[in-house]
Amino acid sequence: MSNAFLIDYIKGRECAILGLGVSNLPLAHTLCEAGIKLRIYDKCTPEELGADALSLRDAGAEFFVSDRNFEGIRGDVIFRSPGIRPDVKGIADAVSRGAELVSEMEVFLRLTPARTYAITGSDGKTTSTTLTGRFLEAYGRINGYNTYVGGNIGTPLLDRCGEMSGDDRAVLELSSFQLMTLTDAPERAAITNISPNHLDWHTGMDEYIASKKNITSDRTRRFVTNAECSETLNIARELARTGMEIVLFSSEKSSYGEIFGDIRPVGGALAVYEREGCIRVSDGVDESKALDVSLIKVPGRHNVENYMTAIGLTWGDVPVQIYADAAQDFFGVEHRLEFVRNLEGVDYYNGSIDSSPTRTAAALSALADRSIVLICGGYDKKIPYEPLARAICEHGGVRAVVLTGATGEKIGREVELYEKAHPSSSLILLYRQSDFASAVELARTVARKGDCVLLSPASASFDAFKNFAERGNTFKRIVMGFESSV
Fold first, then answer.
1. Is the pLDDT of residue 9 over 90?
2. Which residues have C-beta within 8 Å of that of residue 391, sequence separation ≥ 6?
3. pLDDT in tens, 421-446
4. 114 Cβ partners below 8 Å, 6+ apart?
5. HSE (CB half, 13 Å, CA atoms) of 153?
6. % residues pLDDT > 90 (the chain)
């Protein structure tokens, strides 16, 4: 496929790539194939990076082993991997010398002719992105356009710009890391919610929130967000004065007036809510039915909110019937409250994506009527765990928690402190097992017939795994390997 858009953008300038990760690998191949001078800086050697890196070296790319400060980097255009802070010394020095600092996603949004939809948030962004893509794909098959889904969801799209047209749609999941320096925002944007996250990387909540706000700019025509989240409601209140169309959704309120209150958008406004078992959309005058909640196959109020996010983004772009058709065969995204198996009367669920307390609280809420053995713990993102302790202790059905990983002890202490401060809360059995596989096996021995064992770590995976998918797949492999004792 032609990558003329990208090559024309580079215009013969020398390029540097910082970190040869998933997002930058297709970009590197495209630049090499076009004969553009390319330097790749990574903490690993080409031999350690593997076959792709070796093929890039054979194609002419220069490799440099660099520490996290990236001092001495050279290039007219520097592509930053999302996990690398833009203010490290080497990058700052290069920019001061006139280098242009960008990322794969920033350039994609600058170059793509497709209509763009993007979703960020602390929780729910992958499911909301997937649903938005499904809605647009379904209508595209009828209406003759293509839909591309990518970004933080795992698929880079920059190298596919050349095959896109102005009739096509691009749906993007964006992380705070990707948004940190974003200036060319999408046409339609959503923030599902904001809660403390990634505070091991960001300097604090102010920087984290500021990065999320970068999902909108002067080119954004519609902004969708959660009316029940104070941080995102404040962002909507600011944007309502700019003339941008504001869409607020709520799983607690049930009318336009309740949701918007004293907010008076200068541009258009829509409210998305549930009443009488149906998700509805109102402009303050007329109300339309969008989707019967009974058709949603994935459990939990948070998934109703994910549908509201996707409906808010696509309302007016697809026929209403598309929502019902798409819901019929959507059973969720892998590693998100994913049913694994039933063994001896115990259900096993994989929620490896749950890397924050709010995600785990939502998973517990979705299983509100169940007796649960919870597996928690992982990499420490320096976020508070008192809210998780409250969710565990007030759930009523959590019998036991198997604590593992770097945050296991921290979570256990917060549960014990909460129980001490709230003697009426149910007493939770706490087990500690540093090894992940042993923790899963211990959870099996603790579980009784009728229980569910839920992997919902409330922590990232990097203490023991490459990513949440590897952690979830390990959990599933262990569980599927259990043999019946009957």
1. no
2. 357, 360, 361, 364, 365
3. 988 766 799 999 999 999 999 999 99
4. 148, 164, 165, 166, 168, 169, 170
5. 25
6. 79
Rounded CA-CA distance 378/463 in Å is 6
Q: Residues 445, 435: contact at Cβ < 8 Å? A: no
Positive or negative CA dihedral for 473, 477, 479, 480? positive
Q: Are residues 357 and 392 in the same domain?
A: yes
Residue 412 structure tokens: 């256990």
Residue 461 has phi, psi (to 5 degrees) of -105, -5
Shared domain check, 62 and 110 = no
Dump strand ranges (E) for 193-311. 222-226, 245-250, 269-275, 278-282, 287-292
Domain assignment present for 406: yes
- CA angle, 107 then 111 then 112, to 5°: 115
Residue 342 inside a domain? The answer is yes
Predicted local distance difference test score (pLDDT) of residue 486: 63
At which residue do the structure tokens 């046409």 appear? 187
Alpha-carbon span 391 to 385, nearest angstrom? 10
- Alpha carbons within 13 angstroms on the beta-carbon side of residue 382 total 8
Range of 203's domain?
106-327
Number of structural domains (the chain) is 3
Inside any domain, residue 486: no
CA-based nearest residue to 293, from 351, 306, 127, 171 = 306
Instruction: Give the containing element (helix H, strand E) for 327.
Output: helix 321-327
Largest CA distance in the chain: 70
pLDDT score, position 1: 39
CA distance 176 to 205: 11
How is residue 124 annotated by DSSP?
S
159 with 194, same domain? yes
* Domain end call among 72, 87, 102: 102
